[in-house]
Amino acid sequence: MTCMLCDVIKKGDNTIFQNEKIAVLLHPEPAVKGHVLICPIEHQTIIEQIPDFVISQMFTQANKICTRQFEALQAEGTNVLVQNGIPAGQTYGHFGINIIPRTKEDGLNLVWQPKQMPEDAMNQIHEALKKAFEDIGNFEKEKPKPIEIKKEEVKPEEDYLLKSLKRLP
Amino acid sequence: MDNCIFCQMLTGNIPTKKVYEDEHCIGVLDIYPAHPGHVILVSKEHQTIMPQLKDEVVEDIAVVAKHMSQRMLNTLGVKGTNIYVANGIAAGQKAGHVLVHVIPRSQGDNVMPNLPTTKLEEKEKMIALLK
After folding, report:
1. Under a CB-based contact definition with an 8 Å cutoff, are residues B131 and A16 in contact?
2. CB contact, 8 Å: B80 with chain A?
3. What is the ipTM of this complex?
4. Distance between CA A90 and CA A129 in Å, rounded?
């Protein structure tokens, strides 16, 4: 499968920071100058596929990038935006967190039109989500690496003795 | 903080439709949602922007947002979600308290326009600045 972001990660010349799980990249098609994308190195499409401890790392890195955008790019604000799924504006088939430096005059508009919902519809959703979120918790930490146990090599001498033993009537 | 409405929500002085709580945050329904089911995660510690939060708080909120997204897809029959944070007025922040929005999305709901795209320039300079 060809994935533009997998290629960008592999090529490495957009990379600001990388460890074994995540890559912090200059967005290949930035909304504004200094737009950063934080991706899992392993190709995954939506947030639900990514382990909890990797998501945690991605967001703490997002915070660091926000600070750099404030300090080094003189951003007046920053947006952290996840577009999870095509209806949410996702354009690549590889998950990413957008970190967008903002100024008052940049012309970007990410603010939605607030809606007023009837009280009974709000109550219905309240009950449904409260129930759905009941089991959130006990997050997955990084799995410990398996301990490697080296097989003891059979010494030729022992092997010889064993063979001799088998030959006995 | 006394004059922060989100801190008042945390203490219960302002009523909310709470859907989640742990040691670092609460999740409440946004009363003026972008889309039905829009949840805001409110940090228990009063801070204005996300970079001021401790790593352990950010880690918790991030994973809670992930799990909420997953359950929204299953429960509300939506086909996508946004996780959105605005740090600073220039970024569209309206409250004086860090909020992480988890917004269910359906095709054609017009919640947020697509991000514009430009050509990436001055790569090396930008990388050096952001490192």
Report:
1. yes
2. yes
3. 0.96
4. 24
Beta bridge partners of B42: B26, B99
User: Are A104 and B90 within 8 A, CB to CB?
Assistant: yes
A1 touches chain B (CB under 8 A): no
Which residues of chain A are within 8 Å of residue B110 when distances are taken between CB atoms? 113
Query: Does residue B72 belong to the interface with chain A, where contact is any CB pair within 8 Å?
Result: yes
pLDDT tens digits, one per residue of A49-77 = 999 999 999 999 999 999 999 999 999 99
Q: How far apart are CA B57 and CA B63, in angstroms?
A: 10
**Cα B94 to Cα B48: distance, rounded to the nearest angstrom:** 11
Nearest chain B Cα distance for residue A147, angstroms? 28
* pTM of structure: 0.90
Cα–Cα distance between A66 and A32 in angstroms, integer? 14
Q: Token pair of B23, please?
A: 């040691």
Span B20-67, pLDDT tens digits: 999 999 999 999 999 999 999 999 999 999 999 999 999 999 999 999
Q: From A27, which residue of chain B is nearest by alpha-carbon distance?
A: B120
